[in-house]
Design a protein that fits this description.
17% helix; 9-stranded parallel sheet
Length: 257
């Protein structure tokens, strides 16, 4: 059974699933699709052209589906898509895409904490955690199960790899490889995200191979390209190590030292 508080405003063009709960003074705008069992807490605003999956939670005062903050935007039809089971906490803002990508996308099972901002065309993978007051500029890509700590600032077009950990109050202007820990202003690398890898159930021999590849790339006196080549020649290169080396080799913005 869907429950809509008497003070809530729901546009006639919005589509609501089964068991949706819309709280006091919440607003659901035109072209919005709300999945089954999704909850909009008091004063949450879903402005327009937004697809919320099943079991999503949108916190007090959060604004999803607002216009992109881009001077080139001319009112094109663009979207926000939020995957099932994602939690968006109080006063977070998630803007629609621009003509460049058409959609701002957040994956399944993400945790977007209070006051986070996701700008236009961001692409956030599954099970990503973004902590309080972190700000992502346009076109940022976060791969699955990465963690962005609080008060971080991510430059436009930056990519953060899978299972990477970005420490609090970091300024990220270069790509962060998968599986590493990155902290600072400007951000620097501090080895592997060993705690995250253990929690993800990564096998010890794979972690050991990753450590060796990391040392060749970032803890040696040779140029990065030579370190990558040496890692490919001397480290058992399975899927995980290949993912790490391919990312470092193919980055367009460069990686921190």
């Amino acid at each position: 059974m869907t429950t809509i508080h008497p003070t809530a405003l729901v546009d006639p063009t919005a589509t609501l699933g089964v068991g949706v709960i819309i709280g006091p003074w919440a607003m659901v705008g035109p072209g919005v699709e709300v999945g089954d069992r999704t909850e909009l807490h008091p004063r949450a605003t879903i402005e327009r052209n937004t697809r919320l999956g099943a079991d999503v939670r949108v916190g007090v005062g959060a604004v999803v589906g607002g216009d992109p903050q881009d001077r080139k935007f001319r009112g094109e039809e663009t979207w926000v898509e939020i995957g099932e089971g994602t939690v968006i906490r109080e006063y977070a803002t998630i803007n629609r895409g621009t003509a460049a990508a058409g959609v701002t996308r957040v994956g399944r099972g993400c945790f977007i904490m209070s006051y986070v901002h996701l700008a236009h065309d961001c692409q956030i993978g599954d099970e990503v955690t973004i902590a309080n007051a972190s700000q992502l500029a346009g076109h940022v890509t976060i791969h699955p199960r990465a963690t962005i700590s609080g008060l971080c600032a991510l430059h436009q077009f930056v990519t953060v790899g899978r299972l990477a950990f970005v420490g609090g109050a970091s300024r990220v202007s270069q790509d962060v490889p998968p599986f590493v820990t990155a902290v600072g202003n400007p951000v620097a690398l501090y080895g592997l995200n060993t705690v995250g890898l253990q929690r993800a159930g990564m096998a010890p021999d794979v972690v050991a191979a990753l450590k060796k590849a990391y040392r060749f790339c970032f803890n040696s006196d040779v140029p990065l390209s030579q370190g990558i080549a040496r890692a490919r020649g001397e480290v058992p290169v399975g899927e995980v190590v290949s993912e790490f080396l391919d990312f470092v080799e193919q980055t367009e913005r460069g990686v921190p030292a």
